Amino acid sequence: MFILKSLQMRLKFFKRGFRIAKGGLSKMAYTESPAKASLCCEELQDGAPPTYAMYEALKDSCQNNATYFQPDDSENGQRLYQGFMTLMDHVDTVWPLVDHVRKVAPQYDFDAKSPGNGYRSFVSVVDSCVLHGLKLSRQVNTSRDALLFRKGHFVKEIESCGQLLASLGTCLHHLHTLLAWAPPGELFPTEPHTPEELFAQADTINQYCFYGRCLGFQFLPSMRGILKGISICMAGFSEAYYCHGNLISSVWTGGQYLIDPEMRARRIVNISQSASIEFCKAFWFLAESEIMKRVPGLMSSPVAVNKIITIPPEPITVTTIDGKESTVLPPTVHIGLQGLNVRLISANKRTGMVGEGSSSLPPADGVLFHCHGGGFVAQSSKSHETYLRDWAAKLNVPILSIDYSLAPQAPFPRALEEVYYAYCWMLTHFKEIGTTGKRIVFAGDSAGANLVAACTLKILTSGLRRPEGMFLAYAPLMISFVPSPARLLCLMDPVLPFGFMMRCLKAYASPNTKSEGGKPKEDKPHGGHNQTVVSSATTPLDSNGFLKVSPSQEGISEGPSSFEEVSPSDLAELQAHKSGSERRKSSDTTISATSLQSEHTATGITPPEDKSQKYVSDFLERYVLDSDTDSEGRRIPIIKPSPKTLEESHREAESENSSTLVGEPPLVDDNEYTKDNKKRIKTRISEAATGFMGAMSSRLAYITGSNAISRPTQDDLAARTNLDALIARSPSDEFIFSVPRDPFLSPYWAEDHLLKKFPPVRILTVHLDPCLDDCVMFAKKLKKLGNSVGIEVLEGLPHGFLNFSLMAKEANEGSKLCIERIKQLLDLENNPGSRENNQL
Predict the structure, then answer these.
(1) 160 is catalytic
(2) N or C: which terminus of the chain carries fewer CB neighbours within 10 A?
(3) Cα–Cα distance for residue pair 753/477, rounded to 1 Å
């Protein structure tokens, strides 16, 4: 009986402690938005801004907790006391700094209806930190008497919050320096200032606090779990990447990042500062794993057409707005002639659409020309299907997404040349992609937005038809680390860490350009044409203003004779990083778009051929078999339809997932072809099977194998398996390269007379995007020139939020807003400027 009563008393005691803890949590249910954070404050002072009350409420709560724990002689009790006292000191230090920035930030907005700039972003981040600290302090206040109160847990939480606020205080000092460098309204310094000079003005920022317990504090609650998962995956993947194949050990250590935030923060910061660009590429390409490839088909809107079209590297004849015919040559810079993959996505099959047979639905009047993001070094149209499928269904127009070549194997200007080349191809193949081409809208996110803006400049200088509209999502429009407030956000960004961003910029915009004698050599122009040539190859002498690239760079092509200088291993490596070429799925169709032989021969340029297959006859390579690549860049032969009637060719093409747009004449007669056809097909099918098995083996080796960080010394090489052994460096150590001021690289620097000809532009970005200031300043520049431009800035979402549209409600709503803006650009019949489009 006594034991029963004792158990009942204990149960009542536990229930009482639980009710106290639950009551504390219920008081925490105020809004998450820093803009409305004052609603959580009970004490509002007359005449003071609502946010000031939030800061004062944090101080009062900290003082209450400090008084409570001061008599506590335990180690954790004293650490809590010191933690709350330190947090109060940081609040006193930060408030005057953030208050000044808060007052001047509206001067830098695009307009009153579109508030948003880097200064506002940092004010929001600091407010979010204070709100996080207030919640934490109140949770301690209401649950500190409970039996289940964990001092050790809250010690770490309070100390992390104090470190976070201290680091943000350092960032605010940097913002005050930036305010002194630029006049009101200008987010970029008007005079040359180096990032090293900026970071010399204050102490080094502690990045560890941004990736530990407080990771994602500045984002919406729906995004925090996603960003935390990405960070854990990044840390765990680095174990597999650097552990020399010890997958079991890497999985075990990766699990520790879930329960040890400090360990995760240390790992992520060291990865950001020390890992190579190849690690960045490998991690981002996880979005194209076999599992992730199936997600869009299961969760996104269904589409009737989703296929890859391969554009051969052959000249294209286009008509300028003056009615003259010009020839656009295929890109050759850096990696020579390569086929270009484009993905066609359409919600419906339409009349004339290649490979779809007959359809009663007429061609659409509009088409969306899309470029994917990925920092110029990773991802593809496949990894962006998560929102492209939904766009195709809601817009009801075909989408042509370009799988351009990726840096560092194909740095600037290769990707831009391929996008421009794909646009010229589209101008001559409207019927095949299911559109009349009456309205063309460009769309791109992140790096893709930069490419479509630069491509528009190229189009305007070439005299071709410009698009009817342009949609840009979180666009980097100045490819250099010019100091600006938003650029500092990458020091705490889980999706785009500082080191990742710097390596992407360096890989794309600033490859090694030194040659013999220290001067870059000039690319040889392609001559031998009587007609006007609009070349997509770029040289300093090019009338369109491209920079010349030194032919001494690895893999660069100086002319038709330089292809022999590229080894088979180099070609294999380049193909391994060729965006889009490795993606071949049962739901996709690959179409080889061929052009006339006479045009190809006229250029005097021969496509590069892999020497490992030199014994394969030209006839077999060109007319019997197509080639695709697997995920590791291995060439997989694919049977082409035999040269029969066009109708039979299309039927066989559909059965083999391959077809041709234009049939070419055979080099030999049909009898000879039929005689050896079965033997050759059997041989190539065997090769295809071997290649497939090799790809499966190499994929596992790629994920779990050793990929060393390049270091100049043996000591550094020895430390590559343990990134935690590397000392965290100042962020300024990354600024050891220069980026040319080229408008095709950074559209923000384009001349006014070109920007004035831009079509209507709609920009969608987020407050917490390191590229926010690029978008705001570019929009201001267009507005000043009289262009039709609009910008919207969303709260609480990260850079690249479109890729999370299937995971978070707010990201999905952002994608729907993109659709609405693109719809407006597609329907320009009532726009007064649409009729003069082709007369500019």
Answers:
(1) no
(2) N
(3) 18
